[in-house]
Amino acid sequence: MEFPKYNGNIHPDEWIKDIQKFYYIWKTTYKEFLRIAISLVDPTIKLPTEIRDTDELCNALKEDISFTIFKNTNKRILQTLKYIPERKGGNTSNFISNFRKLCYNAEINNIEEQKNYLYKSLPMNNFFSSEFYKKMKNVNSVNELIKKFEDIIVDEENLITNDSVVALKHVATGKYLSSIKNLCYETESKSQL
């Protein structure tokens, strides 16, 4: 069994949760567990000599420059994150998971800041811009933010765009409109596409 080491490339809270699993497996004393946890921290990360619990360990890890670099790296990744609609090969579930993880790692808890990052990740077109501002106006929680984002995505997927394929069905007969090459209407229309 490989014990997770801490080298500054994971959020300290997440790492502490990961190693706490081993505390229950080892059935050791808390003091011994804490000593092992401290020994799993990379030696380039300087810790205070006296650490009494995992909260103090976590706070010490957050004070190290490696955590600042970790947070800033996640913010930069968040700034470059782009949403790709599913009809173009994207995966909304993976995108949201990645977005939430980056916000967590960068410790971005402010909902307005999260809205801003989410907006900048969208493809720039009139639909996304107008819908985003309409639906996100009174959003106050992360869950509500994600739900409203999903609503925008569903609405966008149902739009008819230049490259959409549309089938027209006659209501009374149930027959579909079809195209025939070289057929021209006798009305003002010159061709049938």
From TrEMBL:
Top-level taxon in the UniProt lineage: Eukaryota
Protein source organism: Rhizophagus irregularis
UniProt protein name: MIR domain-containing protein
Record InterPro entries: MIR_dom_sf
